[in-house]
Amino acid sequence: MTQKTALITGASSGIGREFVYSLAEKGYNIVLVSRSQDTLEEIAEEIRTRFAVDAYVLAKDLSQELSPKEVYEEVKGQELTINMLVNNAGFGTTGELLQSSMEKNHQQVMVNVNSVVNLTQLFLKDMVDRGEGDIINIASMMSFLPFPYMSLYAATKAFVLSFTEGIHEEYKHKGIRVLAVCPGSTETNFFEDAPDSLKEGKMRTPKQVVETSFKALAKNRSFIVDGTPNYTIANLPRILPRKVITKISGSIMKKNMS
């Protein structure tokens, strides 16, 4: 049986790094993608030693328009077959929209949206040709809610959720499993500088998020919210008007930022 290979973006830290270790432990060869060449090299060497798998490092800035295509072409150049794609790379800014430059906002959309769409499309074609493949897109609990002072981030993650659910339906009968994972507050670098309102209660660990992902993928779910409290929050739009949710979340964020 041929050993499978997974490609993971944002592989240098947090949830992405946990996917690297978890999949390597399962026997997957790993393609690690992020901007941090040195960190990726260290992780790659560790998983080669610990799990006897192959590891390939691609240092790419996914905020650049052509980066997804470059990733795909380099993978093909190595004659690798990607059985699982994990679109984990992403970042968010906090504050009013005008407090971030247009350049920073553009980069956020490119990483959170453009790279997800482009990498999915590039690798999906090969998966469909083979009749098998898995794609995991990391969305957010914010995918379900308008979130003032993180408006752009929440909107990009709403896109990821909607896009993933649609692709899941399109390709579920062609041997492809497509899953959106929606974590809430998690013990990652993303939350180190976040407002306190995003860190209330017990935070989930990257390992818990990854375990939730694999369980949902095994059931061929289109999306999963990690953690019961986060699931409750994600379902608030079913109970309260969206304008009420927006006002409450905006008030909490504004208070913590001040």
TrEMBL record:
A molecular function GO annotation: oxidoreductase activity
Claim: Iron-sulfur is one of the keywords in the record: no
Keywords of the record: Oxidoreductase
Top enzyme category: oxidoreductase
EC assignment: 1.-.-.-
Gene3D superfamilies: NAD(P)-binding Rossmann-like Domain
SUPFAM superfamilies per record: NAD(P)-binding Rossmann-fold domains
The family this protein is said to belong to: Belongs to the short-chain dehydrogenases/reductases (SDR) family.
UniProt name for this protein: SDR family oxidoreductase
